[in-house]
Amino acid sequence: xxxxxxxxxxxxxxxxxxxxxxxxxxxxxxxxxxxxxxxxxxxxxxxxxxxxxxxxxxxxxxxxxxxxxxxxxxxxxxxxxxxxxxxxxxxxxxxxxxxxxxxxxxxxxxxxxxxxxxxxxxxxxxxxxxxxxxxxxxxxxxxxxxxxxxxxxxxxxxxxxxxxxxxxxxxxxxxxxxxxxxxxxxxxxxxxxxxxxxxxxxxxxxxxxxxxxxxxxxxxxxxxxxxxxxxxxxxxxxxxxxxxxxxxxxxxxxxxxxxxxxxxxxxxxxxxxxxxxxxxxxxxxxxxxxxxxxxxxxxxxxxxxxxxxxxxxxxxxxxxxxxxxxxxxxxxxxxxxxxxxxxxxx
Length: 346
Description:
Elements: E1 5-9, H1 19-28, E2 33-37, H2 40-43, H3 54-65, E3 69-74, H4 97-110, E4 117-120, H5 137-154, E5 159-162, H6 178-187, E6 196-202, H7 212-217, H8 240-249, E7 256-263, H9 281-298, E8 303-308, H10 322-325, H11 336-343
Parallel strand pairs: 1-2, 1-8, 2-3, 3-4, 4-5, 6-7, 7-8
């Protein structure tokens, strides 16, 4: 993995007509990694031990044939593994963590040497990703530890990455701000159970080079958020540096940071919660390229893969918020960001 390395998230599961098209878009755009969701509730849906491997086999095979590395996000619990009475409208951990450990172990065993990295869960510092309950870093670390040990036993060469945390200023019970949650993860013993620290790094309205402290002071760049300034650093791409500081404080500077999601949106629809920080497609293109360039100049050697969102799913429409983050449209047509990234020296 180079520093930085180039990844993009795609939506390929069940998209038989467009899978190869979108993988070739990634390859031709100069990306070396593709991030895909390997949902537990799709693979072991019918019951414990009843695996359906046809679709993951197809995706792993096609990705490998095109010479792309695979980053698998693993979460979403099947109904049979959820706790009785769990709110199935939101994501949440399994009733028995051992069921998850056995699943990720089976996944890593089947695709040993073929899936390069595993992301364990997504944004567990949000209640909506944790059974609707108040987030709990100690519980997440227990989930991370077991998954790390299972994957490492099945495929020691695979990289285990922590969940990307949501860059949020919201308080309990809705959320725990990401840097506070990260400190709680270290206090709970997370250090020994991951290979790279996963982060999310949306740029919001600020350019990628903007100092987080200056962004935090600017009401226009923080949507008039009344939170304390130290929390409003989350509204900048360089908030990644705050994560790095926590790693160093915990004697963990030898590990790299993996940026699991980042980008800018052009979503200016009336009523959209993203409209306040929408940029033009041309500005989006410029900011994304500059973000990679900033990381290359300032964050080596500790930054690893940087996974951009998204190559658009073929079924997304202008009614979907993901449509506006994407660097292509639903038909695979390049947007300015894709074209500028393709031309960028890597």
